[in-house]
């Protein structure tokens, strides 16, 4: 099981919110804590976590009705990793108590600390009876 950045960030208070949703002063402090937590992860876990965070931010900023509070890029299926790029069709994000599948391509800096590009396409809602199969929760 991969380490959860949100668990590493316990006490941050906004670990499940896109950092862009915080006030500027809070974002600066949170960014610093997130960066320190990411640096503690092995490169593979860091790639996954930084793309999870970017998925929440990108989907939350888009002109749609979704307000993600959690994203997992490897929920439904394992993505393909090549160098500093991860690509998959089995990501999932939670919005307003429901989970939705998404496909994506996420490219990061060589240290895997910053997302350089992130493209995604939202799929259908994941039926609640499948949530346990994918390790998803309410």
Descriptive account of the structure:
This protein is an alpha+beta fold and 138 residues long. Helices cover 31% and strands 30% of the residues. Strands 1, 2, 3, 4 and 5 form a 5-stranded antiparallel sheet that branches. The protein is globular and about 35 Å long. It starts with a helix and ends with a helix.
Largest sheet: 5 strands, antiparallel
The number of strands is 5
Overall 3D form: globular
Any idea what the radius of gyration is? 14 Å
Tally of separate domains: 1
* Mean pLDDT metric: 83
Range of helix content: 25-40%
Poorly predicted segments: 1-27
What's the SSE pattern? HHHEEEEEH
Q: Which percent band covers the strand fraction?
A: 25-35%
List its salient traits.
138 residues, alpha+beta, five-stranded antiparallel sheet, 4 helices
In short:
The chain has helices at residues 5-8, 24-39, 43-61, 131-134; strands at residues 68-72, 80-82, 85-95, 98-108, 115-125. With 138 residues, it is an alpha+beta fold. The two termini are 19 Å apart.
What's the layout of helices and strands?
Elements: H1 5-8, H2 24-39, H3 43-61, E1 68-72, E2 80-82, E3 85-95, E4 98-108, E5 115-125, H4 131-134
Antiparallel strand pairs: 1-3, 2-3, 3-4, 4-5
